[in-house]
Amino acid sequence: GSVVASYPYDDSPTHRLTGVYSKSADDEVFKYLAKAYASHHPIMRTGNPNCPGEEAETFPDGITNGAQWYDVEGGMQDYNYVWANCFEITLELSCCKYPPTSELPKEWENNRESLLAFIEKV
User: Fold this and answer.
1) What domain range is 53 assigned to?
2) Least packed by Cβ within 10 Å: which of 42, 72, 98, 115?
3) Is residue 92 annotated as a catalytic residue, yes or no?
4) Active-site residues (predicted)?
5) CATH number for the domain including 113?
6) Distances 20 to 9, 13, 17, 72 between C-alpha atoms, Å
7) How many separate domains does the chain show?
8) What percent of the chain has pLDDT over 70?
9) Is the pTM of this model over 0.90?
10) How buried is residue 1: exposed, middle or buried, by Cβ count under 10 Å (0-12/13-18/19+)?
């Protein structure tokens, strides 16, 4: 896990594991939507999620192009964009994939304003 808003494409023509910016035709719209979410999240907006084992990982403005972060061939985000004209971003909300129940109120507080801002944009 991490704390970042990721946008298409997740797949790249070279299928390199990481570091390839795979720009979609709607790249500016996706960046706008990702920033709308990230800019309202107290951790995500810093671009420094500080996840255990990944402390050096940073994301400018709290967002990333999927393939630049890591290449995913055949992902749902890309499939829905290409075949259904559905604009999706992927939200990584926690360093822990399954946070304990005791942390859920804090996660809600971290994400509430981001969710409202994102809904307003959509």
Assistant:
1) 4-120
2) 98
3) yes
4) 92 (proton donor/acceptor)
5) 3.40.630.10
6) 10, 9, 8, 11
7) 1
8) 100
9) yes
10) middle
